[in-house]
Amino acid sequence: MAVEIVLPQWGMEMQDGTVVGWLKQEGDPIREGEPLVEIETEKIETELESIASGIVAHILVPEGATVPIRTVLAIVAEPGEEVPRPAAAPAAAKAAAASPAAAVNSVSVQVVPAARRLAKQHGLELAQVQGTGPNGRILLADVESAIQSASTPPPKPVQVQVTPAARRLAGRHDIDLAQVQGSGPRGRILIEDVERAIASQAAAPAPPVAASEQTIPMTGMRQTIATRMLNSLQTMAQLTLTTEADVTEAMRIREGLARQWPDTGLSPLHLVMKATARALREHPRMNALQREGAIELIGEINLGVAVALPEGLIVPTIRLVDMKSLADIATEARELANQVRAGQASYDAVTGGTFTITNLGAYDIDAFTPIINPPQVGILGMGRVVEKPVVYEGEIAVRSMMFLSLTFDHRIIDGAPAAAFLKDIKTYLEDPWWMIASPPTGPAV
Q1: Which residue has the higher pLDDT, 121 or 170?
Q2: How confident is the model at residue 100 (pLDDT cuts 50, 70, 90)?
Q3: Which of 174, 410, 424, 431 is catalytic?
Q4: Of 360, 362, 302, 312, which is closest to residue 333 (Cα–Cα)?
Q5: For the residues 191-220, what does the mean pLDDT come to?
Q6: What is the SS3 assignment for the chain?
Q7: What pLDDT band is residue 158 in, cutting at 50, 70 and 90?
Q8: Catalytic residue among 174, 176, 364, 414
Q9: Which CATH number describes the domain made up of 155-202?
Q10: The domain 221-436: what is its CATH number?
Q11: C-alpha to C-alpha distance for 58 and 16, rounded to whole angstroms
Q12: Are strands 238-246 and 54-59 parallel, antiparallel or unpaired?
């Protein structure tokens, strides 16, 4: 019996989705649970799996088309079953008429979304890439390997000490470790050294491009970000407070725990997350959502952490942060960030946040004005950790300092309580030894 594959609603906010690429063609066999099509929503780009086994009888929505939720995308039938072709969805028909090139993907192999994007950026034909995933599926690492093979031979192995997390990060961003200055013991390369190298690489000036040579359409994720950020600024009374925290002791704790847990990728961000979660527990009005003239105080402390992608920004959510250890926070944050960059994050993984943290420290930024992610009522921006001379206990001393920038909705929270919240985060970072004790229990409100 034929089964309709419809566009599901991943979360209450989702209204439509765009077909990025079909992983099967009409007539191809498919198993239940096997990826069928790549879908982009305002939150994520992910794969929709088939809910039935059989043959792909009809593909009804072309690549590039945006259709409402519950639209029939394809029909899977039993082998030999004759299924009449239904009329295509209006939005799909309109997209097909406007863009004749938007047809079923000519590459029959399965490709993860991140691998497809990277191949397109480098002009690489996916048909020439050998997939190492299940059933020959092309993974991000396969495309990276193909790009590397097409360029100059790889350099000789670097004979320097590198933490595992730093080595993995360097590999994902094509960073030559021989050119990275290590700041760890005996010149060992730490993850923040690689982050600085990534930031420097991103800041390198690009060759000038004439205005007529390139036009980038505001579609998909970029259009969603533009709409949400403009709406955030137009509908909220946003105000930013900035303070500077002495994180010398926090960096000491991080250095010790990083040696103990080398695979977690523990960074200053995770200590800030821990301190923010504790402060949110004591300032429940900051851990809230705006709901049509009402303020909804949330019992769970679920922190969104902004992750930059070439095409925009995604904010995966680490849930119940106040209940977790630093190791758990670092591990989960790293895994979620990897899933987002690989295009494998679920819709649940990027929704449900109650407060957001954004980190520009890797780009040598001290302080900035972050924009609130609605319907949340606050966002914390963290800058770089820098050593500088300060007055400490009556004497000039070199200390590790960090700026924190809190943007809050002044309609929901007044300046004094917002300042008290930011001061508590600063206090918890400056006296951080509680972080390595047992995590607290109980709800936030």
Answers
A1: 170
A2: very low
A3: 410
A4: 302
A5: 73
A6: CCEEEECCCCCCCCCEEEEEEECCCCCCEECCCCEEEEEECCCCEEEEECCCCEEEEEECCCCCCEEECCCEEEEEECCCCCCCCCCCCHHHHHHHHHCCCCCCCCCCCCECHHHHHHHHHCCCCHHHCCCCCHHHCECHHHHHHHHHHHCCCCCCCCCCCECHHHHHHHHHCCCCHHHCCCCCHHHCECHHHHHHHHHHHHHCCCCCCCCCCCCCCCCHHHHHHHHHHHHHHHHCCEEEEEEEEECHHHHHHHHHHHHHCCCCCCCHHHHHHHHHHHHHHHCHHHCEEEECCEEEECCCCCEEECEEECCEEECCEECCHHHCCHHHHHHHHHHHHHHHHCCCCCCHHHCCCCEEEEECHHHCCCCCCCCCCCCECEEEEEEEEEEEEEEECCEEEEEEEEEEEEEEECCCCCHHHHHHHHHHHHHHHHCHHHHHCCCCCCCCC
A7: very low
A8: 414
A9: 4.10.320.10
A10: 3.30.559.10
A11: 21
A12: unpaired
Q: What percent of the chain has pLDDT over 70?
A: 85
- 414 catalytically annotated: yes
Percent of the chain with pLDDT over 90: 44
Check if 410 is active-site. yes
385: β partners: 402
Could you tell me the residue ranges of all domains in the chain?
3-106, 155-202, 221-436
φ, ψ for residue 239, nearest 5 deg: -140, 140
pTM of the model: 0.63
Report whether pLDDT(16) > 90.
Answer: no
How far from the centroid of its chain's Cα atoms is residue 355's Cα? Answer: 15
Sequence-ordered list of residues with C-beta below 8 angstroms from that of 9, at least 6 positions apart, any chain: 69, 70
pLDDT of 142 reads 84
Measured CA to CA, the distance from residue 236 to residue 254 in angstroms comes to 36
3-106, what's its fold?
Answer: OB fold (Dihydrolipoamide Acetyltransferase, E2P) (2.40.50)
Distance CA 344, CA 325 (A): 25
Report pLDDT for 185: 78
> Smallest Cα–Cα separation from 247: which of 381, 153, 385?
385
Query: Using one digit for the tens of pLDDT, what is the confidence trace for 296-353?
Result: 999 999 999 998 877 678 889 999 999 999 999 999 999 999 888 877 788 788 888 9
Residue 267 confidence class, pLDDT cut points 50, 70, 90: very high
What number is the average pLDDT over the span 98-117?
Answer: 55
